[in-house]
């Protein structure tokens, strides 16, 4: 009898441990056959009573998961689901762009996934984004700095439930508004690694794409527009002189600047701000390059998909890719992430910063400007980045404390 009781208790422990650690997803509606990689989804409770439930997708490296880096991916917004990264940026699956016919939209494998050589956690944050939710009404308004602490706690708890990845090199990653969160998160993790009695995270650095760093980024839209021939030389010279580099927070008494800013908007407002070479189109139209975003809402709100992803049925209503915190207030209390970049580099953490050259929202000129403002030594001047025999982009490398960033 005692032996049976011990076995029962052991079984209950294993089952509870399995639930807490997430659930393996072997099949997804819209994808033919079993998934060619290992996907796990689940929730991690945040806070003393774990009222906040943070939802994640975890994909093991298809190469060597025991030794390959562990990456955390945060999407921007704030308030965009991390499945944006998984299905549209760097994951092993993508939505097939075909006219919606009422059935579950199709998924296809990609050839460019970062999971070819890395383990990746795609985290829905802050609360209200994706499938992350709170069991009770929030007492405090979420903030940038609060989210940094929540994500740090998420990582500590996730690694305690997945100790096999605790020694893997860790990198925090994201794009767009994550440029405000990730640098602060790296600093938080670094400090936490020196606190007694908490297992250290094997932090090595971070990766950011088209990252927002401050409100000043927006001012680089004007010189970017000029460089891309979106506005004339005459308008650019006039607006530059009249506005003195400040184009979007103009003193109402500067009527000349305000008038020129109006002329600027006439030239640019009808563009697709995320990719100026693509049409500013209706996402519900199959001819729009953003049509897969429209398909995503049909795919992920399908009951069979939610069941396959092990989403708690009572957690949220209709899923939205980007809530922009429409339903939950949010305070942006990090005004400038450049000091975090500086502290992290001084602490020896490497960073990879990349920018698309047709993004008007966070133009590459803004990224170049804040990197140059750090006054680090350039060890590799601007040069082509080659894939086989083709130029795929351009790169330069800076150093600090004898370490490449």
Automatic annotation (TrEMBL):
UniProt entry tagged with the keyword Ribonucleoprotein: no
Keyword vocabulary terms for this entry: Disulfide bond, Glycoprotein, Signal
Gene Ontology BP annotations: proteolysis; secondary metabolic process
One MF annotation (Gene Ontology) recorded for this entry: sinapoyltransferase activity
Signal sequence, renumbered to the chain: 1-21
Xref: Pfam families: Peptidase_S10 (PF00450)
Gene3D superfamilies: alpha/beta hydrolase (3.40.50.1820)
Homology family: Belongs to the peptidase S10 family.
Protein's name in the database: SCPL12
Organism listed in the record: Arabidopsis lyrata subsp. lyrata
Organism placement in taxonomy: Eukaryota, Viridiplantae, Streptophyta, Embryophyta, Tracheophyta
């Amino acid at each position: 009898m005692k032996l049976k009781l011990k076995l029962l208790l052991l079984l209950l422990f294993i089952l509870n441990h399995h639930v807490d650690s997430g659930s393996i997803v072997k099949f997804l509606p819209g994808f033919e056959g079993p998934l060619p990689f290992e996907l796990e989804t689940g929730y991690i409770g945040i806070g003393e009573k774990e009222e906040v439930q943070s939802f994640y997708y975890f994909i093991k490296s298809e190469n060597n998961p025991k030794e390959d880096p562990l990456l955390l991916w945060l999407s921007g917004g704030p308030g965009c689901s991390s499945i944006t990264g998984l299905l549209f940026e760097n994951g092993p699956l993508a939505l097939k762009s075909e006219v919606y016919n009422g059935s579950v939209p199709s998924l296809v494998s990609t050839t460019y996934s970062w999971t070819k050589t890395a383990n990746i956690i795609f985290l829905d944050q802050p609360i209200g984004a994706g499938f992350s939710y709170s069991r009770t009404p929030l007492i405090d308004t979420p903030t940038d700095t609060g989210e940094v602490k929540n994500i740090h706690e998420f990582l500590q708890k996730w690694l305690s439930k997945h100790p096999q990845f605790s020694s893997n090199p860790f990198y925090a990653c994201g794009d767009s508004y994550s440029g405000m969160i990730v640098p602060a998160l790296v600093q938080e993790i670094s400090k936490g690694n020196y606190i007694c009695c908490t297992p250290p995270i094997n932090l090595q650095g971070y990766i950011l794409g088209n990252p927002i760093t401050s409100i000043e980024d927006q001012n680089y839209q004007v010189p970017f527009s000029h460089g891309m021939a979106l506005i004339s030389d005459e308008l650019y010279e006039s607006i530059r002189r009249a506005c003195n580099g400040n184009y979007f927070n103009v003193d109402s008494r500067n009527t000349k600047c305000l008038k020129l800013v109006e002329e600027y908007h006439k030239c640019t407002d009808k563009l697709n701000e995320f990719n100026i070479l693509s049409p500013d189109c209706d996402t519900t139209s199959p001819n729009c390059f953003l049509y897969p975003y429209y398909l995503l809402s049909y795919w992920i709100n399908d009951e069979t998909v939610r069941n396959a992803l092990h989403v708690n049925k009572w957690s949220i209503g209709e899923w939205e890719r980007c809530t922009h915190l429409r339903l939950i207030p949010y305070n942006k209390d990090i005004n400038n992430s450049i000091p975090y970049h500086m502290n992290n580099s001084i602490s020896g953490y490497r960073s990879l910063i990349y920018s698309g050259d047709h993004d008007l929202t966070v133009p590459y000129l803004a990224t170049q400007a804040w990197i140059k403002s750090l006054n680090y030594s350039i060890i590799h001047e601007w040069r082509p980045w080659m894939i086989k025999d083709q130029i795929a982009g351009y790169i330069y490398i800076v150093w600090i404390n004898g370490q490449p960033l």
